[in-house]
Amino acid sequence: MDSDTTTRDRLCDGLCLPIAPIAATEGQFDPLRQRLLWRYYATAGTGGAVADLTSGSPQLRRELLASLLAMPNKNNHEPWLRIALVGESEALSMASELRAAGADAIAVALDEATGGSTEDLIGLLQAVGRSAPLIVYPQAIPSRRLSTVQAWRRVLEIPQLSAVSLPSQRQAAVMIVRAMMETRRKDICIYTANEINPVIDLVTPFRYANGNKTIERRVVGGMLRLWGVFTARAVELLERCHVVAQRGAIPDELLQVSVEVSELSMALATENNAGFREVLSRNKIFADNRDAEGKPPSPATLDRVATALDYHQHLTDFAYVAARLEKWMAD
Fold first, then answer.
1. Architecture of domain 3-247+318-330
2. Which ranges in the chain belong to alpha helices (H)?
3. Is the pTM of this model over 0.90?
């Protein structure tokens, strides 16, 4: 089995794929802290990790990518996917370099500010897909170029497409799954990129009539910044959603958890995701809570994060990390 087929099959297993922040200490890339983060993700049971190359200086992004690609591509005898998330405007110019460096897949973050037509976008995605397995990662805002089911069908018919993520914007999410049903492709898996309410995506049956048949598609995993913290709990939650999806009955208690996850996510995403760095600082994976430019979170953000953590302690994994951090740092 070739590596691209392995990547596609592994994605369709339904994975927890955290989108990682850059570990920066005093404005400089911190390779030790970044390795700690990768080790945390692998130990927690994720199926891989995503290097976010859509922000930060070119130097920081290069160091982040190199750090991820230095990780073993196996974890507990299973493929551990190393995925690069790149902006649409840079995807084509970076594709060959990313593949040569060892990225298992390239996720293209669609950007309405890029301009161009639907034809331009499809041509770009086709070209990127010729370099590596392709994941399409839409924005939460409505898309001018992909505003119809027919347009999404054309995207989903790209042969190299391995997965597509559903945004939090519900109209787009429904169109994507409808388009997938119409293509009848079974080799593309659906992930959630819904940072606000991923649980609902993971347990919702998307059922569509197709002639005399009813076709059902499910979201199998998540590619989320939210899962870049409290990752051990995220893996458990994903496994629970898989069980619930198989049984077909959604318990009220899980619906309540979905509300709690939403509330926690909104607090962490405050001030350009400063809350995530605060969490990684609290559990000592990161040296401090400052961003790549050395700026700390505002007092209002820290208060909001502290309140959310106090309300939702059961969603945290501080004890899990504390019990393993010394070993991770010694390895």
1. Alpha-Beta Barrel (3.20)
2. 3-11, 31-44, 58-69, 88-101, 118-129, 149-156, 170-183, 198-203, 231-247, 252-268, 270-282, 299-311, 318-322, 325-330
3. yes
